[in-house]
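Let us practice reading a record.
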Amino acid sequence: MAKIILCCMNYRPEIISTGKYTFELCEYLAGRGHDVEVITTAPHYPGWKTFSGYSAWRYSSERLHGVKVWRIPMYLNEAAAGLARLLMPLSWSIMATPVLLWRALWKKPAIIIAVQPTITNAPSVVLASFLCGARPIQHVQDLEIDTALAVGHVRAGKGVIRFVFAVERWIMRRFDRVITISSQMRSRLIAKGLAPDRIKIVRNWVDTELVYPLARPSSYREELGISPETFVVQYSGQMGRKQALNVIIRAAEQMLGDARFLFLLAGNGPMRPELEAAATRLPNIRLLPLQPTERLGEFLNLADCHILPQEQGVSELVLPSKLGGMLASGKRILITADEDSELADFLGGAAIFTPPGDVDAVMRALQDMIDTPDTSASLRIERTQALDASTLLPAFERALGI
């Protein structure tokens, strides 16, 4: 069995996005007998605010589900925009470097894994791997720089952008292997100069024992006082700029006179205050906090339709982590994404697609759904099987070469 160090900015008890998949992977590997340590920071996502019981300003450690976890100080800013967007991961990467070097030299791991985001910790992982003789491996969940430019988190001149991409290429070529989650991400990595034979694809998975279609109405309907006749359009997860949640607000505004629809949003993030303001004036929008993992199946089954809005140009860069749960619930899915995106390639007829930012198309799609039978359920079941954790976690272990 192998000794493994994994560096990531997000980890348990975060329950969505990168943190969820990272802790599930680490706990799976530990359960397989591997000696796993994680270097991370205080849990803070999606609100960019430290969870209760943790501190973002001190070093600490704990053991969670068979994994040794080292918590590193990090600067946090709830706005998560502009200069803060750069300073937050950079602060963690700088503060984590001494601990990473200490653990690498002391533990002598077989591999050290860097999770992107963030790429700012990649140089330290490469250095630590060189010093201790480990194989450096990068897990690319998000092409951080490309996405930041696409959604406008970072603005810079062409010369600066070329320099940043050149540094990124140099860093990523230092990794023995890169594991990513989609074919289009793989293509982007090849375009950045990585050798195709060093890139593996392992998609993000879903626990089909936790999320599956229920034969009865979700208990959330009665708890939240939602009538059986109401068509629930649900979004659950990070509330940030790249999620294009303004589309939901605008659709709710234009559908205010149609009492059949309710937009139910659960999550946190920089756009939460804007969504709260919209909900105060739009009775067809309702907000909830993120729901506990143990009730995820019930909550996702509350939806009549899951909505997954994406900004123009972003859908080709990311394969949203929430997709697996949406599919596994068996409910219909509406996605605003580019026609040539990975989402469209992967899902095909298992979801309905509308152009990014086209509110009228979203409205027409929802109105069609409420009046027509669901004919794509079998396709969603088929796509869910391709994302089953019982298949993909062993595939990830094989991709590590251990």
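A brief commentary: Residues 83-107 form the longest helix (25 residues).
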